[in-house]
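Problem: given the chain below (208 residues), write out its structure.
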Amino acid sequence: MLGDYVVSALITLVVVVDPVGLVPTFLAVTDGFSRAARRSVALRASMIAGAILIGAALIGDWLLHTLGISLSAFRIAGGLLLFLIAAEMVLGVRMRREGQAAEEAVEEHVRNVAAFPLAIPLLAGPGAITATVLLAGRADGNVLLMGLLLAVVAIVAVMCFVAFLGAGRISQLLGVTGNIVLSRLLGVLLAALAVQYVVDGIRAILTG
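Solution.
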């Protein structure tokens, strides 16, 4: 049973979080960042996402019920926030690094990008949080199973960090023009994903 639970949890979270699939998005939202800045974003985003999913496993279900927040409402909120970032990517108005004088602003932007949109809602989005809460429910208070779930979350966070570390090489292969085209294209795709989040949330509310 323990083995089945671990395999199920690992596969579920890897598929939902999709670290490799988010590499192009990582490249797009960190366009113009230095290598060190990208590494910092990768580390911060992975740690924040891991902490959020661990929190979801431990108190997610209790917290949502206590605050009277449904998962459907969370999907809608996440979708709206993601749409704002997608619009910035398409229009090319995201903040960029502009010399040594802007270094402090860049560091602040690195922190912001790591938290949103990478950690939330892409890595630890409604789907990942929902999956984590459901997996915690399957543990049914079993301390060992909960410990294994937390270990799985940590493994997935490490996988995200490793995947993002290799993003720089992909960026070099694409070149400047490729990165611009990729940013615009992914902006459109993210906008569609954001709308889907909102639609799913509204549908769940109407049919619930």
